[in-house]
Design a protein that fits this description.
elongated, mainly alpha
Length: 78
C-alpha cells in the first residue's frame, strides 16, 4: 500500500463508521489467527477455525479495498 492509500485509509477510518468497523473486524481476525498459528499442536477444531478466519479476513479485506476504490473514484484519484 502506498502513502496515498495509507492516508486515504486513515481518512476513511475517521469519517466512515462502516469502514472503521471493517478495519476493527480485520484486526480481530488477525489477532486470533496469530494466536492459532502460534499453537504448537492445534486441535482439528482450531485448524478449522483458522481456515474459516482466513476466509473471513480476506472477505473483509476485499470489502475494504472496494470501499477505498469507490472513494478514490469519487475523488477523481483513479
Amino acid at each position: 500500500m502506498d502513502a496515498n492509500s495509507v492516508s486515504l485509509k486513515e481518512h476513511l477510518m475517521a469519517i466512515d463508521p462502516e469502514f472503521r468497523a471493517l478495519v476493527l473486524e480485520h484486526q480481530q481476525y488477525e489477532a486470533r489467527l496469530n494466536e492459532l498459528t502460534a499453537l504448537p499442536y492445534p486441535t482439528p477444531e482450531e485448524l478449522v477455525e483458522e481456515t474459516i478466519l482466513k476466509k473471513k479476513k480476506l472477505l473483509v479485506k476485499d470489502k475494504m479495498e472496494a470501499m477505498l476504490n469507490r472513494y478514490k473514484r469519487q475523488l477523481g484519484l483513479k
